[in-house]
């Protein structure tokens, strides 16, 4: 398995392979960039088929965090970690304590948090080995569940898209399809949209959550696959990645695609396909940055809701700038966002080096 030659390596500053024979830990920590500050990004535990799949995942996720953090103008760099879930029974607490020792060995260059397959309690176990962990359920600056803030950012981002795609920010009577509506972000987003007078079309694997949204907001429940065919103005993917692909793009009628899910485009060139069809796409790592903005309050050690609100205003401005550049240049919004992110990281890196010199 090559690392430096890996197609997703993208000049990672550090990649740490951490193992612990006693607990069965097999983890990889990717530190993509510390140009803006120490790297921060969640830890994912997953049953990877092999270490190559785990490496690919961590490299992509870690680069994505660099882009997300810089576009949200946060003083943190991008990193991420993955733990290869051990087969069979294992001591979860001991595993996460061992993972914490690996994080500690980076001396603060990387701060971890929860991601898929990892809970706040796991992070409490990590905390026993290192202070470089956030997303804790308790403590002085604990920021709690980031989902409401993520949903707030997505709602604001949808308004920014509506201004450009529908000619109005007001969502009264606008039809929105939410994929993953019973999830943490989806549920809060449905609340914001319903309050703004939008008509909701919702789907999820979790039927109970859907029934509640139907009762509360009069939302229309549709099938898992039918969500793509809805005659709506806005499609909000809030469940899985890769849902904008060559099959679904032919079916999506919505003018706007804007939701919380990470990695919505199956491939980078889907951005071009979206643009060709006259649709507006809100780059995922820009519109869903509310969660990391919330976590940043905890990293700073002094959680301030006014600061979080200011950053969400910035999210709206950045998204608007990207969509305007996309319209002016006739180029896909995802490519514009990637270019801006890389440019900003380079500027930070150059500024850091000039301070050292
Ligand atoms: P979640 O697990 O609470 O919600 C996801 C929902 O999607 C669940 O209700 C699940 O049942 C549903 N789902 C799964 N497969 C589905 C399918 N095939 N069709 C329809 N629904 C399906 O997760 P979340 O925290 O709400 O996050 C949602 C998305 O947003 C994820 O992609 C996540 O990575 C991303 N995200 C979340 C945050 C956050 O603050 N929670 C921040 C940034 C990005």
Walk me through this protein's architecture.
The protein is α/β, with parallel strands linked by helices and 357 residues long. It is built from eleven helices and twelve strands. The strands form two sheets. Strands 1, 2, 3, 4, 5 and 6 form a six-stranded mixed beta sheet that branches. It has a six-stranded parallel beta sheet with strand order 9-8-7-10-11-12, sandwiched between helices. α2 packs across α3, α4 crosses α5 and α4 crosses α9. The chain is globular and about 55 Å long. The structure holds nicotinamide-adenine-dinucleotide. The site of nicotinamide-adenine-dinucleotide (NAD) has 23 residues, from α4 and α5.
Brief description of this entry?
It is built from eleven helices and twelve strands. It is of the alpha/beta class. It starts with 13 loop residues before the first strand and ends with a helix.
Helix amount, in percent? 40-55%
Q: Supply Rg.
A: 20 Å
Q: Ligands bound here?
A: nicotinamide-adenine-dinucleotide
Sheet/helix structural class: alpha/beta
What's the end-to-end separation, in Å?
Answer: 37 Å
According to DSSP, the number of beta strands is: 12
* Average pLDDT for all residues: 94
Tally the helices. 11
Series of H and E elements: EEEEHEHEHHEHEHEEEHEHHHH
Strand content: 5-15%
How is the main sheet built? 6 strands, mixed
What best-fitting shape do the alpha-carbon axes yield? globular
**Oligomeric nature of the chains:** single chain
Low-confidence stretches: none
């Amino acid at each position: 398995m090559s690392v430096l030659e890996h197609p997703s390596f993208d000049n990672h500053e550090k990649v740490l392979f951490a193992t612990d024979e006693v607990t069965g830990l097999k983890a990889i920590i990717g530190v993509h960039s510390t140009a803006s500050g120490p790297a921060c990004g969640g830890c994912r535990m997953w049953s990877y088929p092999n270490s190559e799949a785990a490496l690919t995942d961590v490299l992509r996720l870690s680069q994505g965090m660099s882009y997300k953090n810089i576009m949200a103008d946060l003083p943190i760099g991008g990193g991420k970690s993955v733990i290869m879930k051990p087969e069979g029974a294992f001591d979860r607490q001991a595993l996460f304590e061992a993972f914490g020792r690996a994080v500690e060995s980076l001396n603060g260059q990387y701060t971890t948090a929860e991601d898929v397959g990892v809970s706040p309690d796991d992070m409490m176990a990590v905390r026993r080995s290192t202070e470089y962990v956030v997303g804790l359920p308790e403590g002085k600056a604990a920021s709690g569940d980031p989902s409401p803030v993520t949903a707030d950012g997505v709602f604001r981002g949808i308004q920014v898209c509506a201004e450009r795609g529908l000619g109005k920010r007001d969502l009264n009577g606008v039809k929105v399809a939410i994929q993953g509506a019973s999830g943490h972000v989806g549920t809060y987003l449905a609340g914001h949209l319903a309050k703004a007078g939008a008509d909701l079309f919702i789907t999820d694997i979790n039927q109970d959550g859907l029934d509640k949204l139907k009762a509360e907001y009069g939302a229309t429940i549709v099938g898992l696959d039918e969500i793509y065919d809805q005659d709506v103005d806005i499609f909000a993917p809030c469940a899985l990645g890769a849902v904008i692909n060559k099959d679904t793009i032919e079916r999506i009628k919505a003018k706007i695609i804007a939701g919380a899910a990470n990695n919505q485009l199956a491939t980078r060139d889907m951005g071009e396909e979206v643009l060709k069809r006259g649709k507006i796409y809100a780059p995922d790592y820009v519109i869903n940055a509310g969660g990391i903005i919330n976590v940043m309050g905890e990293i700073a050690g002094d959680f301030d809701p006014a600061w979080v609100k200011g950053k969400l205003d910035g999210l709206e401005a950045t998204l608007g700038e990207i969509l305007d550049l996309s319209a002016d240049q006739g180029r896909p919004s995802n490519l514009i966002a990637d270019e801006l992110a890389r440019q900003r990281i380079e500027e930070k890196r150059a500024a850091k080096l000039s301070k050292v010199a």
